[in-house]
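Lab manual, section 2.4: Encoding a predicted structure.

Procedure: take the sequence of the chain (124 residues), apply the prediction step described in section 2.3, and record the output as structure tokens. A sample record is shown.
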Amino acid sequence: MSKNYSIKVEIQPDYLPQQSDPNNQQFVFAYTVTLSNEGEVAANLLSRHWIITNGDGEKEEVKGAGVVGEYPHLMPGQSYRYTSGSVLKTPVGTMAGSYQMRADDGTLFDAQIPMFTLRAFALH
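Recorded output:
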């Protein structure tokens, strides 16, 4: 992939104890995603593909159009931020995946989502 097409993905996960119910194996997390177009060509986010793995090793795949109902178009140097959420039955898990992008010149490419950890407790 040339430097023309480069979307940097940064994630900030947060545990939401007030929405969680550990006694019923329900751990609620929010995550804020920042997409930054570090390439030379503007690009549109078409869809997302997440792989969510809980602490028991059970995987769930989530595919869908856009993100939070939007299809952000990023000019070179521009960023877009959104917050979404996930519910796990374990207090720890991971998420990773990719965003499918279309550059303004018609080129399709994936922006990789680096794996990050969802954790319901602080590490000491």
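Check your result against the sample. The longest strand covers residues 43-54.
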